[in-house]
What we know:
Number of helices: 5
Mean pLDDT: 82
Strand content: 5-15%
Order of helices and strands: EHHEHHH
Shape: elongated
Strand order of the largest sheet: 1-2
Low-confidence stretches: none
Radius of gyration: 23 Å
Amino acid sequence: MFHFRRVVFDEFHEVARATSQNATALGAASVGSGAAAPFYALHALEGRFHWGLTATPLLSGAASVAHMATLLRVYLPFDDRGEAQRFLDTWVTSNTWDDAGAPMEEHWIEVDLSPQERALYLHQRNLLAEFAAEGPAGG
């Protein structure tokens, strides 16, 4: 099998949620059903380092933090809030955006659309206007 130097889970909250749902379903699923395949596949990825990238980690309780940690090869008791908090304080960081070093400039470029491109553009603009008029609930 493969061994990676670094295993990086992007959108880590989605990975953790999916494997958590599969882990919960393991009791109800038959062994041959395949429901547990993603759970085992993600846990089987071998690497020296395991990283998870997310803007919205699962923090609803000690169990969700412990489950998230298992994908990073850190094992916590599922019922110990203190250990879950210690894991978060030690290993989870939050970066803030500093735009001081990135100057922003605005440029406008005029574009001549073909008749077909203009029709597509207008159609999309009208769909978005209808959606905005209906509101997020759809009516």
